[in-house]
Amino acid sequence: MGRRVERGFLHGPRVVAAQRQVNDARIRRAHLDAPPLFPDDETVRRMWNDAGMRVFPVTFAAKQAKLDALIPQNKYLLFRYGDKILFSNRPDR
Prior knowledge:
Layout (H helix, E strand, L loop, with lengths): L6 E5 L2 E5 L6 H6 L10 H9 L5 E6 L3 H7 L5 E6 L2 E5 L5
Antiparallel strand pairs: 1-2, 1-3, 3-5, 4-5
């Protein structure tokens, strides 16, 4: 059994999740050709700093400190709904 994912990232046509809080082995077995679902912190930072990629991390307000530690700058708040917060690495146009 897996646990709840702490942060999700939307970018391009796919969704990835950070902080391997769930067991993704079952997902990977079912979709062997799929890209990795859970990038490591360095991959998330690289995606975040890629000028050609727009990334949308979603987090809970109580978990925002973890996101701030992973990505300390260049975060743009796009939307807040209850305890959920949506950021982007690019400003909203």
